[in-house]
Amino acid sequence: MTKVMELLNGCAEYAYTLKVDEKSDVYSFGVVLLELIIGRKPVGEFGDGVDIVGWVNKTRLELSQPSDAALVLAVVDPRLSEYPLTSVIYMFNIAMMCVKEMGPARPTMREVVHMLSNPPHSTTNTHSHNLINL
Questions:
Q1: Distance, CA of 80 to CA of 117 (rounded, Å)
Q2: Which residue segment(s) compose the domain that 60 sits in?
Q3: Is the pTM of this model over 0.90?
Q4: Contact by Cβ (8 Å): 27, 117
Q5: Number of folded domains in the chain?
Q6: Is 84 helix (H, G, I), strand (E, B) or coil?
Q7: How far apart are alpha carbons 42 and 116 in whole angstroms?
Q8: CATH code of 32's domain
Q9: What does the CA dihedral 10, 14, 17, 20 come to, rounded to 10 degrees?
Q10: Coil, strand or helix at 51
């Protein structure tokens, strides 16, 4: 299986049709965002047949209190410790919207660009808690 096929393994419409479209591009973009946030490659580091999306979902299930903050703290790359937690959670949530299993549930790239370009005021607040302080 090629790396592209492994990457798109969780993309339901690709699995059924073997065709890519805008929503599979959104899925791939979400995987790239997860790579940046988690600091790990999308495949090959999580066990046989498990990709980065599956690992995040598995980690969520293993948490006793699966809040966004708890999940981000469990998976985030320690090199992001200087960034405000709210900003990292915001980016993580965008990534997770992009990697929803079913294409129609994912945002469009236009919506993703809008979310990335217009974060809520609280994510840009320089006084919010950094990951390192938690």
A1: 20
A2: 3-133
A3: no
A4: no
A5: 1
A6: strand
A7: 21
A8: 1.10.510.10
A9: 170
A10: strand
